[in-house]
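Q: I'm writing a short methods note and want an example of a predicted protein-small molecule complex. Could you take the sequence and the SMILES for fe (ii) ion and return the bound structure as tokens? Please keep the output block clean; save any remarks for afterwards.
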Amino acid sequence: MGPQVSTLSDIFQGPFLGLGLGIDVHGDDPDWRSLVDQDHRPFDFLEVFTRGDGGIAAEVRERVGPDFPLIYHHENLELVYPSPINKPAIEAAAINLNALSAPWCIEELAYREIEGRYIDFFMPALLTHESAVSTIKKLKEINSHLPTIVTPENPPYQLPVGDLHILEFMRLVGEGADVPLILDLGHLYSYQLCVGADPLDHLNKIPLERVIELHVAGANLVDINGVTIYEDSHGADVIPEILLGMLEEVLPQCPHIRAVTIEVEDASNERVLSEVERVRKVFDKLGVKAHGS
Ligand SMILES: [Fe+2]
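A: Understood, no commentary inside the block.
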């Protein structure tokens, strides 16, 4: 497969890829190489995360073969940080997208650097109109340099700042930059906990026809003096049952859904398989099948 150029309508009209695993190429757990080498892979695609190093993703394409679907999850384009675009980061994203032949590029609405200094905390978007306007401008500019579309994902929250609901912020960014959206159900739940709302309150604020991918992942729900905080721990913990209920409700409402991803970084291979089984049960209940399965 050569480099793939994807437009918005290519992405919306493409097939449903099914259930995939989000893996971190920098991590040892799960052992994605042994999962990939199985005769019958229990997942339909992989979503490959890198911290932004160009070239590091190529090994995954070599390992899975030329036709297995791969999606790319980048970090360091800093979509919501109001700085000029970072050309080396965009070049690295393009190298990985082309190596994977990925149909879209995910990046969270968050930032990790301030004026070039790495901060060891994942800073989620300020939820204001000004922040949305600056994100739209930056996202449009970044997308003009890439072979496919950077598709924003809602980040986790423990202390949201700003007067917009996260789903309203996503609507502004999705419509303003004319991009698809990734809805991470655990991250949405983390926000709803912060504002004392039910898990799917205000779902009508996000244009679900733009949502092409849903994420679920393990989490640790911590009670601090009666306040529940969502710790986004991915494979280190199991997927909270409440997220599977959210998935069952939201998935049928997304007409252009292309993928459901379990983010499994730090999981044992055994946990990966048991989480796949849990999510497959939701698919079976809904009668959802991957293209070609
Ligand atoms: Fe996610």
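A: Remarks, as requested: The longest strand covers residues 117-124. Residues 153, 184, 215, 263 surround fe (ii) ion (CB under 6 Å).
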